[in-house]
Amino acid sequence: MSKLSTTPRSTSGTTSRVPKRKKVASQAQKKYEDLHFVDTSRAVWNYSLWSEEAVNDFQQGIHYHLYASFGNHQLSVLDQAGTYFSVWAPNATAVYVTGNFNDWSKDSHLLFVRQDHSGIWEGFIPGIGRGEAYKYHIHGFKGLRQDKGDPFAHLWEKRPLTASITWDTFYDWQDKEWMRKRKKHNALDAPYSVYEMHLASWMRPDPSNEESYNSYQEIAARLVPYLQKMGFTHVEFMPVMEHPFDGSWGYQGTGFFAPTSRFGSPQDFAFLVESLHQAGIGVILDWVPSHFPYDAHGLFMFDGTHTYEYADMRKGFHPDWNSYVFNYSRGEVKSFLISSARFWCDRFHIDGLRVDAVSSMLRLDYSRTEGQWEPNVHGGNGNLEAIAFIKDLNETLYRDFPDIQTIAEEATDWPGISRPTFEGGLGFGMKWMMGWMHDTLDYFAFDPFFRPFHQDKFSFSMMYFHDENFMLPLSHDEVVHGKSPMIYKMPGDDWQKFANLRLLYTYMFTHPGAKLLFMGNEFAATTEWNYQSELPWYLNELVSHGGMQYCVQQLNHLYRNQPALFEKQFEPGGFEWIDLQHRSESVMVYRRKGKQPKNDVVIVLNASPVVRKDWPLVLKGKKTWVEIFNSNDAAYWGTGDVFNPNIAVETLDAKSKEVRLHLHLPALGAIVLK
């Protein structure tokens, strides 16, 4: 996650026009449509999409489709086409709509405030259509006047301009086959291999130009065949929600209901999602309900007061990211956030949300020293309001979209992250296995001579892999800020570095749990990730890097084609150690188990640079074993001369079906047997 840099406010702006589409009102809009009266002599008509019930739900924190009422909506009232605006500014004394349509006048289009003390300002302005840039000019607390973007806008000007744009999310979806089958694709007993990527820097028309972007359609044309070839089941986009500063990587967002305009319109983003679905690939979005930036056009001090953030800066300010923390105790804020999560699943058919920085939400003392935080009413360090919010979030999403997954980026030992709320958990579907990531990278960083002394670090994750539904992440955070690219985390000469990395990836893909690999890791990028350029794709012309890419491709296919690697990936019965006794040789052996014993596979890892011929391995089960994967294959830039075409097997005990295999183990290599 990157710190924020503020950007200037826009005082004007334009956007390209597109033909209007017929507005199809949602059921929620139809339910809450309520025309009080119309005075055609005024610039703004007093028109509402709110009912008393909806307002009450909003205030109570249980209105989870706010995007049907807030924001801008192109409607026809009494045969007059125009746009309805609605915004929450509870401490404002006046709210005007200012934009291109009135030459950015600050006082010509005053919205009506509801008389129910909800703080909702609304009104219908005839003649405004799709594609108009606008902001809210707010007379706030103690006379503060400021221009704010629309928190519920579906489209924003491309930065550095900061106005919202009147737009809708209508799209004629053609992914019914995927939606019908995605329960199977997203199940916990299905293969789940995620390619994490940053849309701007994955591939650029001009690799060295930060302002050079592929459109959503161009990304689809390049990304879909690549993911199909590589065998990933899902793609995870780092935040696509609108954000002003590229250097935040999207984690400092201002548009919680808008895909970024850097690559096109909401309809263009829908096309990208649809294209992936048609290719059988699920889409996960990074979603950030933990904090937001202080940019002048954003949520911070929205009506001159701490509207969305805690007023107490011991809870309301995040020291790590120089940003502000949502006030989870406020019903309106809770409704806002859960509506945002639902929005992406509802309007864009998203298959999962990876929730960012969950640890910072759960703990009042996160990144704070004594005196910088206040205990909760029970004297503990848990943020009780955030905990309640997270539980409601997951319960709502799984109720309304039972075929999706929510995934927590949570790095502590907080119990029950991925356990149901009715069992006392937080209700996520999965949790990032940060302990595995740290221990694994630490182990592989050791010179092989020292690895025998640190085998416990390597094997420790198997003690707790079933405590949560874990996803194994080798994410963007591991290849930035001086941490070095994956290939240079490995010791040894060039050949040993690549052999070590192939060994690590084999271990990852055969370890219990879902998988996540950041873009560029699959071909051993030699530089840290830089959001301002593109990946060094030219490396794949080298046999070493091309071989690494092909190795990851084959590991994906191994994972997807071997039921033992995914059917019980979150269950204790899905894993068994066979040999941890050869510590001095750095040889480790384990079995992965599926629902049927005939599908079991055995993995042998040799973490030393020594070739081991005729290595004895005692197993119980079948007499015939074949090698189905070898990380030393010449196609992966291995030596290709240490493999097992015919495995010699001798029976030790016919009654117990105990046999001894004689194997050839490649140096710094892994083999998979079936």
Report on this model:
It is a single chain. This protein has 674 residues and is an alpha/beta fold. The protein is elongated. The chain starts with 26 loop residues before the first helix and ends with a strand. Mean pLDDT is 92; it is low at 1-41.
Short précis:
The chain has 674 residues and is an alpha/beta fold. It has an eight-stranded parallel β-barrel with strand order 10-11-14-17-18-19-20-21. Strands 3, 6, 7, 8 and 9 form a five-stranded antiparallel beta sheet that branches. The chain has a five-stranded antiparallel beta sheet with strand order 22-23-24-29-26, covered by helices on one side. Residues 1-41 have low confidence and may be disordered.
Strand order of the largest sheet: 10-11-14-17-18-19-20-21
Describe the global form.
elongated
Indicate the proportion of strand residues: 15-25%
Could you say which structural class the secondary elements and strand pairing correspond to?
Answer: alpha/beta
Rg estimate, integer Å? 27 Å
List low-pLDDT spans.
1-41
Ends apart, CA distance between termini: 41 Å
Q: What is the residue-averaged pLDDT?
A: 92
Count up the helices.
Answer: 14
- The residue fraction in helices comes out at 10-25%
Q: Could you give the count of β-strands?
A: 29
Sheet with the most strands, sense and barrel status? 8 strands, parallel, barrel
